[in-house]
Write a structure and sequence with these properties.
With about 230 residues, this protein is an alpha+beta fold. The protein contains 6 helices and 9 strands. Strands 2-3-1-9 form a 4-stranded mixed β-sheet. A 3-stranded antiparallel β-sheet has the order 4-8-7, covered by helices on one side. It has a two-stranded antiparallel sheet with strand order 5-6. Helix 1 runs antiparallel to helix 2.
């Protein structure tokens, strides 16, 4: 079986040496973050990506090439990937104290993690969910409303990361399973062939978080979640 791996790190895993793994473009992006916690999360994401890919490719981490060219404008602020679409696919997400790196040699994937901050409201729900999803969310009751919307959000964002669409497409076009059911992509308005190409996996980021992994064209892949603390400490 083919395997996809999700590495979990926390902001506390950052080390001074990780900054040396950033290239010139990444240094510039890091310096534009105003808050230390944002700089730390970005630094860990880059360092972890280079450490994991370096091991897979047999390269020192500082020599792992990452292409961040945006497919829309050509500027270097897109999601990281290996040049030319070669080698493993990667996806990064961070929220609160959690940083997730998902890697697969079998096909595209997307990962999303979100901290439960209690800030989600009906206006956000209307931007994310279709009518049937809103009805299912209300069915869960007030006590599970926030966590349910967070589950919907992470499932949908993982999918649009895997396709490369990101938030350029309306999340209301996607219909995913209810929060009290296993994660699945049920429908995508205007793209009837896509749901059958996806497998979604609920992840375990720890209390106070929701996370989902979306695998595209990987029907037999297994998923392994691994703490990254030891790797980042080397």
């Amino acid at each position: 079986m083919l395997e996809s791996q999700v590495w979990w790190a926390t902001r506390g895993d950052v080390r001074p040496g990780h900054v040396r793994l950033l290239d010139e473009v990444e240094h510039g992006r890091r310096d534009r973050y105003l808050r230390p916690e944002d700089r730390d999360r970005f630094t860990i994401g880059v360092a972890l990506t280079r450490l994991v890919l370096g091991e897979a490719l047999g390269l020192p981490p500082e020599r792992v090439p990452l292409d961040r060219t945006c497919t829309d404008c050509g500027r270097p602020h897109g999601a990281p990937r290996l040049p030319g679409g070669t080698g493993p696919h990667v996806s990064i997400s961070h929220s609160g104290d959690r940083i997730a790196l998902a890697v697969s040699a079998a096909g595209p994937l997307g990962v999303d993690v979100e901290a439960a901050r209690g800030e989600l409201d009906r206006e956000i729900a209307d931007r994310v969910l279709g009518p049937a999803e809103l009805a299912d969310l209300e069915r869960l009751g007030p006590a599970r409303w926030q966590s349910g919307l967070l589950a919907y959000w992470t499932r949908k964002e993982a999918v649009v990361k895997a396709t490369g669409d990101g938030l350029r497409v309306p999340l209301t076009d996607l219909h995913v399973s209810a929060p009290d059911q296993g994660p699945r992509l049920l429908d995508w308005q205007g793209r009837p062939g896509l749901p059958g190409r996806f497998r979604l996996h609920a992840l375990n980021p720890g209390p106070g978080y929701a996370a989902c992994l979306a695998l595209m064209d990987q029907p037999h892949a297994t998923v392994e979640e691994t703490p990254a603390t030891a790797l980042l400490a080397e």
